[in-house]
Design goal:
about 50% helix, 16 helices, alpha/beta
Length: about 425
C-alpha cells in the first residue's frame, strides 16, 4: 500500500473518478444500436461473439429456476432467505407513503414504476446476494414486473445459487444475457425481453457505459465503478479486523480500492502486516493482492476528526469506523455510500445480511447519490386540488409573479378565475 500523511496528500493521491473510455463508449453505442434494430438476433449474435458460444435461448425457464431452488444446500437457502427477510424489513421501514394536507389543498402521490430490469454481473463470482439486493427493494416498492438478467453462455444456465436467489427474491422472469446487450434489451425491448422503465444493478465498464448512454430513454439507479472501502482506525483498532475488511472488497476486482486512514502509524504498520498474512491463505489472493499493491492507500492523520474529513472528501462506497467509540462521529459523516460503525459492523455484513442494499455509489458519487433503496423504484407526484377558497387565497400572488416574469398568459389564467369568483 502507498502511504501518505494528512488530508491534502490523501486527496492528491486518491483523486476523483476516472474519465470515460471513449473506445468503450464507441463499441457500446454500436452494440446498443444493433440491439435496437435487430432485437433477439443481435443479442444472441453479440453474446456469441463475446463468449465464444452462441446463446440458444434468452430466457431461463421457470422449471430450471425451481430446480435450482430445490438443488442448493439447505444452509445456502436459509442464508438467502435470511438476507431477503432483512432486506425486506429494512426497505419496508423506509417505504414512503402518499400524503395530503386538507387545509392547504396539496399532497403527494407515491407510485411505483411499472417495470424494472435488475442486472447481476457474472464474472468470477456467482453474485446471488446482488439478486436479493436489487430485486427485494423493487418488490417492497410494489413494482408490477421485475425482471433479472445475468450472463450465461450457450445453452448453459446461470449459477444455481443465482437462480435460487431470483426465486426467493421474487423476480418475475430471468434472462441469461450479460453486458451492454442486456442493458440494451431492457431499454429497448426485444421479441423476448420486454422494455422496462428503470434499470438497476452494478456491472463492468460495458454495462456502465450502456447505462450512461441510455439514461433519459430509460431510468437508471446510478453508474457503478470498482468497489471501494475506507477503514478509519485509531490506536484501539484490531489490525486483523481492519485488514480483513479491506481484503473483503479487494478480492472483488484488481481495480478495487482499499483505503486505510489511521491516527496511528504503528496501527497502520500492523494492518499492513496483517494484510500480507491474510493474503497468503486467500484463494483469490492474486486479485486481492494486485488491488492492494496497485490501488491500496494508507493515510496517517492527526485525529479521528481529520480521518472523517478525508472520508467526506473521498466519498467512499463503504466507510468503516473501526474505532473504540464511533457513536460521536456518526453525525460528522456526510459522504459515504454506506456507514459501518464499530468493529462488529463489518462491511461484509452489509454485503449479505445486515439489511440495506449493497448496491452503493462509487467513484465519489456518494457526494450526491445514495445506496439503492425502495425510493429508487418510486415516483413522487405532486397533487394540487384547490377549491375556490383555496384558489382565492393565493391567486393574486400567482398573477403578480406571472406579470413580473412577463408571462401574461399565465396571469390571465389566474385572473379569469378570480373575476369569475369575485367579479371585476
Amino acid at each position: 500500500m502507498k502511504r501518505v500523511t494528512g488530508l491534502a496528500a490523501a486527496l492528491e493521491l486518491l483523486g476523483g473518478p476516472q474519465p470515460n473510455d471513449e473506445g468503450v463508449d464507441r463499441v457500446v453505442a454500436r452494440i446498443l444500436g444493433d440491439v435496437h434494430r435487430n432485437g433477439d438476433a443481435a443479442v444472441k449474435r453479440i453474446s456469441g461473439e463475446l463468449d465464444g458460444e452462441a446463446l440458444v435461448s434468452l430466457e431461463v425457464p421457470q422449471s430450471d429456476i425451481d430446480a435450482a431452488l430445490a438443488s442448493i444446500p439447505a444452509e445456502t437457502r436459509e442464508a438467502l432467505e435470511t438476507a431477503a427477510e432483512r432486506v425486506h424489513n429494512f426497505q419496508s421501514a423506509a417505504m414512503p407513503q402518499s400524503w395530503h394536507d386538507d387545509d392547504r389543498h396539496y399532497g403527494e402521490l407515491v407510485t411505483p414504476v411499472k417495470r424494472v430490469g435488475a442486472y447481476v454481473p457474472g464474472g468470477t463470482a456467482p453474485l446471488a446476494s446482488t439478486v436479493i439486493m436489487t430485486v427485494v427493494p423493487a418488490r417492497v416498492a410494489m413494482v408490477d414486473e421485475i425482471y433479472l438478467s445475468t450472463p450465461a453462455a450457450g445453452d448453459s444456465l446461470p449459477h444455481p445459487a443465482v437462480l435460487a436467489a431470483a426465486a426467493i427474491a421474487g423476480a418475475d422472469r430471468v434472462f441469461k444475457i450479460g453486458g451492454a446487450q442486456a442493458i440494451g434489451a431492457f431499454a429497448y425491448g426485444t421479441e423476448t425481453v420486454p422494455p422496462v422503465d428503470l434499470i438497476v444493478g452494478p456491472g463492468n465498464v460495458w454495462v456502465t457505459a450502456a447505462k450512461r448512454q441510455l439514461f433519459g430513454h430509460v431510468g437508471i439507479d446510478g453508474l457503478y465503478g470498482p468497489t471501494e472501502t475506507l477503514v478509519v482506525a485509531d490506536q484501539t483498532s484490531d489490525p486483523g479486523f481492519c485488514a480483513s475488511d479491506l481484503l473483503a472488497q479487494a478480492e472483488h476486482d484488481v481495480r478495487a480500492r482499499p483505503v486505510l486512514v489511521s491516527t496511528s502509524s504503528e496501527v497502520a504498520d500492523e494492518v499492513e502486516a496483517a494484510l500480507k498474512r491474510q493474503l497468503t491463505v486467500l484463494p483469490r489472493q492474486s486479485i486481492a493482492g494486485e488491488a492492494v499493491d496497485t490501488n491500496g492507500v494508507s493515510v496517517i492523520v492527526a485525529s479521528v476528526e481529520e480521518a472523517i474529513e478525508v472520508a467526506n472528501a473521498v466519498a467512499p462506497e463503504h466507510l468503516c469506523l473501526a474505532i473504540a467509540d464511533p457513536a460521536p462521529y456518526i453525525s460528522q459523516v456526510r459522504s459515504a455510500g454506506g456507514l459501518y460503525a464499530g468493529k462488529y459492523s463489518a462491511e461484509v455484513m452489509g454485503d449479505y445480511v445486515a439489511g440495506p442494499s449493497h448496491v452503493m455509489p462509487t467513484g465519489g458519487t456518494a457526494r450526491f447519490a445514495s445506496a439503492l433503496n425502495v425510493r429508487h423504484f418510486l415516483r413522487f407526484m405532486p397533487v394540487v386540488d384547490l377549491d375556490s377558497d383555496g384558489f382565492l387565497a393565493i391567486a393574486r400572488q400567482a398573477a403578480v409573479l406571472a406579470r413580473t416574469e412577463e408571462l401574461h398568459g399565465h396571469a390571465n389564467a389566474a385572473e379569469l378565475r378570480m373575476k369569475r369568483l369575485i367579479g371585476e
